[in-house]
Amino acid sequence: MNEEQLLDKALDIFGNSGASEAYGHILAHMGSLDEYSSQLYNFLYCLSAVTGAKDESLAWLKEAIIDKGYWYRPEVFEDDDLDSIRDEAIFLECKRISDERYHEALKITRTLCTWKCVESTKLALVLHGNQQNMGSDGGHWRFLENEGYQVEYMQSRIIDSYGLFRWEDDGEIQLDGLIEKLPWEGYNVRALCGFSAGCNEILKTLLDTGINCERIILHSPWIPMIDEDSIDRLIIALKNVKIEIICGENDDDCLPHAKKLAERAVEAGLDCKFEIIAELGHRYNT
User: Fold this and answer.
1) Extents of the domains making up the chain
2) CATH 3.40.350.10 fits 112-277, yes or no
3) pTM for the full predicted model
């Protein structure tokens, strides 16, 4: 079990059985991990705080920020889950240090991409989800290499916490600026691939910029940009694009919009494949 699987399972347990069971599940299995990310620590100190284990929560927070050197965007410390430790001296000191590191990181953050040179006639550009980075998705997208694609990865410049990034639902588009720096038109086939909020960035780009591609793959798509005002224009923008949408049947937040996009695409006669994965939540199907 890797960290992503561990945290996904903890979320499932939290929804069904509560914070104490979710916290216990992480404690029971985290020893098998090689290292602990800032996100794992966020689960630990939030869940322990909710269960009333204040000393444990403060110890996890101290370990994350003081010992590991991690930091978080300021909004993380506004979480109601942390109310029980909010006035503690250790909490206040950790928050101060984290805020300083966050603001220093803001000064140097930028959009990144793994692309170095042309290696194929087909290019697939992959966008991560929120609280991920461009190294999070590699294992899932390797199947595209077997289809002859040069697979490259893009990382948002919007920082979430140490080593993790996010896309803003209504924020500025980054993808078009990156593509303009690539020999995009030099490839015969171009695919834009995304997980979760990365899918929203892809659809915003295709709707609101002059960027074109031949294929999109949307996995567990978090696509709040889909509404009645935008979907008709989006369908027009996608008329020459091969569309593939994959979503878990238990992905309650993303499945409704995924279904809506797929249904409208099929109604419009677009080339659209929609796959719902049984018993899958908001995660990859591999």
Assistant:
1) 3-108, 112-277
2) no
3) 0.90
